[in-house]
Amino acid sequence: MTSPSPPSSGPAPTTPVPAPPLPIAPGQQSAHCLPDLAAALLTALTSLADRPVPHLPDAPSLAGYGARVMDLALAGLEPTTHGAYLAAWRQRLLPTLGTIPIDRLTPGTIDRAVHHWAAGGHRESAIKNTLAVLARITRQAARDGWLTQPPQALKGWQRLYLDTEDALTEPRGLALPDFTTLRRLADALTAAAHHHYPSWGQAVIFAACTGARIGEVSGIRVRDIDRHHWIWNARRQTTPAPGGLADKATKGKRARPVPIIEPLRPLVTARIAAVHGTPDARLFTGPSGGRITTAGLRRATHWDDVTRHLGHEHLRRHDLRHTALTWMADAGIPLHVLQHIAGHRSITTTQRYLHPSIRHLTTAGQTITDYLSGDCHPVPGRPQRW
Asked: Assuming Cys at both sites, which of 2, 23, 320, 354 could form a disulfide with 207, CB separation 3.0 to 4.6 Å?
């Protein structure tokens, strides 16, 4: 019997397994792959080139685009502001820039339009409203994709008005010199009015003794007058609105107490008696019993002719406010009290009514106060404040 063979001491023979390919690092593809990649890229570009180019619509004109988005652009505004913006749109933007495509509105184009409006006699406030509504429309155009970004807000255009709007820097120069001059002006305006309507002159005296705007004078009700302390609580003003005139809050949107000086009290008493003391009755009205406005006062009293005849040819209705605040400053009313009466948000605005020598002293005092309170940094090398 044949005996089995002894087991081999070495490993059993196997079929050789090829080693896996080494991984190719990114960016190190073998050279033979490059032609394939180039061919694929060329095929993709050729496919894109064969597609039709989509037609991009022409940008609408400012007039056409504004008509479509106006309600959206002016959303959230108070009715009086809404009406003022729509008037600016109709009277200035449409005639000047309405035909320009919305995507061609450049800062240079707008700048030339502003100079055109200023040269045409448009008031500074009217141009402010015009630029405000234009900014709202262009912001909406940017959101809709017609503009990459809205044109930047113009700066410095107010300098066009510095020659005539001296109140921006020196309102004291626009004030009437004394009460006698004011009385003469009021009498002349009343005499020039139809049927010599007395309320026009009385409203002028009230504004020049309280620092009120004409719109605020129109908004006074009998119940706003505290005759025990002789204080007028200024709460509202009359402004243009869609469909006519409307009452709204004062410019600062806050009520403010205003003293009624003694020479003014007989006039106020007479006006209250004329409406039988009815609390909701207006203290001053037009000849037909309606609200008064600065434009109505100007027309009804022939303001321009009267002021020119009296030697005040540059006097405006708003200068009655400058008159009151200047008189109060010269009388020595403290600066913070004067600011409260005027309703100024910034005390810097109130300081313009101070006499130059007094202004320097109050400015120096405020500087020291800021230094001691920590609002100013000490100068290096000087002793620290206590």
From this structure: 320
